[in-house]
Specification:
heterotrimer, A mainly alpha, B alpha+beta, C mainly alpha, B: alpha+beta, Ubiquitin-like (UB roll), 3-stranded antiparallel beta sheet, 3 strands, 18% helix, 19% strand, C: mainly alpha, Ferritin, 10 helices, 66% helix, globular, Ferritin-like (chain C), Phenylacetate-CoA oxygenase subunit PaaI (chain C), Aromatic_CoA_ox/epox (chain C), Ferritin-like_SF (chain C), 1,2-phenylacetyl-CoA epoxidase subunit B (chain B)
Chain lengths: 356, 107, 241
């Protein structure tokens, strides 16, 4: 329904959706396959069993034994991912009230709503690891767990909604598609569902920019300004370069992560160049050029010092985003208490009825 | 916004967390209900409505069950219980095999 | 003067302004699940608004589409009831407002579904199903807040007291319209009384009855709402989005 006026040929992300479907098929195949060794015996080597399941590209499920560090890594990663969906509603939500047409308003509202839903799927996946959503939300509100730094940048114009869809959602999809093959079952399943539902997000952003770039001079300038501001922060979404990334190697061995930060970043850049061309917008990198030897584009790395500053809390909107989330949570407390009290009263009444 | 919210913003005083519900959806006629995920709600009525909003995004012709996660007893063939905390009495599980109690909730 | 055009415009404006207010809750709901639910309801209202405004534009025959009607009219030209433009207040006010609105919209759309105008009948048939869900959702919260804690009871009671005066305008007689709102009052009262009773609340006395929305005489709040909603569209005359 959204953004279908682009043919599959020039729509970004079409190939990635195919990869999501392939991941889903692989998940079913792996479930069908027998596994050498079968169940662990009473005294079986649990670590060995875990390694066999992961090696066979099968899924670890909630009641399986798993190394404590695997569980902790997953909780951290899934929680950060969930928090990112919830905090990520704010920059785009900022433009719902001012969307320039009723159609755009409906699409944006549906998209931001999807993000709430995705946050909830991910919290549910994290809960299968023995942590409660309330604990995770408290960690977010206390600033002890992070969310993607990209959401600490402001949305200054309507074109930012387009740039977020095209670049930020685009980068997120490149990151997320491999997670559909993650070794932890509930996370992989949540990611498959999310990636499928997100297929329209990137397209709606691209469509917004396409319309602006082919509109009035003021609209085109607005679009270019947004791309100028969101390009490097989007590249930074893939995380620090591989040489500095602390968690990568172990996560790759556990098949939580499947590609390195730099591999995914390169893949994203390679996808964006032609898409920018069709938009008629310029990627703000004078050194961007095709490297025939590598069969990839050479590009300027984002400012990783800036990334670290934003991660550590000094981005333009860190304080604003967290304060907003805290306020919503605090102001809803009396509502949640009322619902709990009402449920308790009704349960009591039912009990009395049964007893009578 | 106000002093009130600043105070309420402290992470100390909090309500009991809502119970967890497992959600099963019949996507189309002729198919059985399939586990799609879980959610939190203070009671069954709200759980059912939240499930509709969250997991079916307003499609018609579907049927939804919500089951208190605490009411599910899980048996998992080649998996073993109690290998990590919290143990089996905590309900944060996505059972691979499940039994749905009769007449729990229909839509 | 209150012919099909004005009537359709009024319904469309009700839905549009209600959607705009509900969407303000996005990222602010008391629970994340409720954020999703409120967005669903806002999307329904917005969907109905688009159908109604598009049709109103056709009835008028002056070449105005949904966006021209939504973004290029001033507050004196809007025909929505005052109830929907009131600020959201706390969650109790928002739920009480949605409850009263949907208890009015449900019988209205149901009657519309059987009216002689085919377009309006089709819109009514679609929208009444959505209204039934909105009413269900709002009633569920009116009950929970009314019969929850002391604080929630107080807030919900205050909300109903605050909003009740705005109900009268909804049912002002309009015999020339495809559906005369005055004929819907009994249905509304039955629904509202039953839910309020279950919520341990009492229906306020009828007294002050502000009105004027249907004639374009609004509260001070509407102009601010429109200033925000229309700012971008108006800044780029004639642009496509």
């Amino acid at each position: 329904m959204y953004g279908n006026d682009f043919s599959p040929g020039d729509a970004p992300g079409g190939g990635l959706l195919g990869e999501v479907e392939a991941a889903e098929a692989a998940l079913r195949d792996a479930a069908e396959r027998g596994r050498r060794g079968g169940a662990p015996g009473a005294d079986g080597d649990l670590a060995e069993y875990f390694a066999q399941v992961v090696d066979a590209d099968q899924k670890i499920e909630p009641r399986d034994w798993m190394p404590e560090a695997y569980r902790k890594t997953l909780i951290r990663q899934i929680a950060q991912h969930a928090h990112s969906e919830i905090i990520g509603m704010q920059p785009e939500g900022n433009w719902i009230s001012r969307a320039p047409s009723l159609k755009r308003k409906a699409i944006l509202l549906a998209k931001v709503q999807d993000e709430a839903g995705h946050g909830l799927y991910l919290y549910a996946a994290a809960e299968t690891l023995g942590v409660s959503r309330d604990e995770l939300v408290d960690l977010l509100l206390a600033g002890r767990q992070k969310y993607s730094s990209i959401f600490n940048y402001p949305t200054l114009t309507w074109a930012d909604v387009g740039a977020i869809g095209w670049l930020v959602d685009g980068a997120a999809i490149v990151n997320q598609v491999p997670l559909c093959r993650c070794s932890y079952g509930p996370y992989a399943r949540a990611m498959i569902r999310i990636c499928k539902e997100e297929s329209f997000h990137q397209r709606q952003g691209y469509e917004i920019l396409h319309t602006l770039a082919h509109g009035t001079p003021a609209q085109k300038a607005m679009a270019q300004d947004a791309v100028d501001r969101w390009w490097y922060p989007s590249l930074a979404m893939f995380g620090p370069p591989d040489t500095d990334s602390t968690h990568s190697a172990q996560s790759m061995a556990w098949k939580i992560k499947r590609f390195s930060n730099d591999e995914l970043r390169q893949r994203f850049v390679d996808m964006c160049v032609q898409q920018a061309d069709i938009l008629g917008l310029t990627i703000p990198d004078p050194d961007l050029r095709w490297n025939d030897e590598r069969q990839s584009y050479d590009f300027t790395q984002p400012d990783y010092d800036e990334l670290m500053r934003v991660i550590s809390g000094d981005g333009p909107c860190n304080r604003q985003r967290t304060a907003h989330r805290r306020r919503a949570h605090a102001e809803g407390a009396w509502v949640r208490e009322a619902a709990t009290a009402y449920a308790a009263k009704r349960a009591q009444q039912r009990k009395e009825k049964v007893a009578a | 916004m106000s002093e009130r919210s600043e105070q309420a913003g402290q992470l100390t005083a909090k309500a009991e967390p809502s119970p967890l519900w497992e959600v099963f959806v019949r996507a189309r006629r002729g198919l059985s209900h399939t586990h799609v995920g879980s959610l939190h709600a203070p009671d069954a009525e709200l759980a059912l409505r939240n499930a509709r909003d969250l997991y079916t995004r307003r499609q018609e012709g579907v049927s939804i069950w919500v089951v208190p996660a605490s009411a599910i007893t899980a048996s998992s063939p080649d998996e073993k219980d109690a290998f990590f905390d919290p143990a089996a009495d905590k309900v944060y599980r996505h059972p691979t095999f499940y039994e749905v109690p009769d007449g729990v909730a229909h839509l | 003067m209150r012919g099909p055009f004005e009537f359709t415009l009024a319904l469309g404006d009700d839905a549009l302004i209600a959607a705009q207010r509900l969407a303000e809750w996005t990222t602010r709901a008391p629970e994340m699940e409720e954020d999703v639910a409120l967005a669903n309801i806002a999307l329904d209202q917005l969907g109905a608004a688009r159908l109604l405004l598009t049709y109103a534009g056709e009835l008028e025959g002056a070449g105005r589409d949904e966006d021209a009607l939504a973004f290029l009219r001033d507050d004196r030209e809007f025909r929505n009831c005052l109830l929907v433009e009131l600020p959201n207040g706390d969650f109790a006010v928002t739920m009480a407002k949605l409850f009263l609105l949907s208890a009015y919209q449900l019988p209205l759309y149901t009657a519309l579904a059987g009216c002689a105008d085919e377009r309006l009948a089709a819109i009514g048939a679609k929208a009444r199903k959505e209204s039934a869900y909105h009413l269900d959702h709002a009633a569920l919260w009116v009950k929970r807040l009314g019969d929850g804690t002391e604080e929630s009871h107080r807030r919900m009671r205050d909300a109903v007291d605050q909003l009740w005066p705005y109900v009268a305008e909804l049912f002002a007689a309009n015999p020339a319209a495809p559906v005369d709102p005055a004929t819907l009052r009994a249905d509304f009262d039955a629904t509202v009384d039953a839910v309020l009773a279950e919520a341990t609340l009492t229906r306020p006395e009828t007294g002050w009855a502000p009105a004027g929305g249907r004639d374009g005489v609004h509260t001070e709040h509407l102009s601010y709402l429109l200033a925000e909603m229309q700012v971008l569209h108006r800044a780029h005359p004639g642009a496509r989005w």
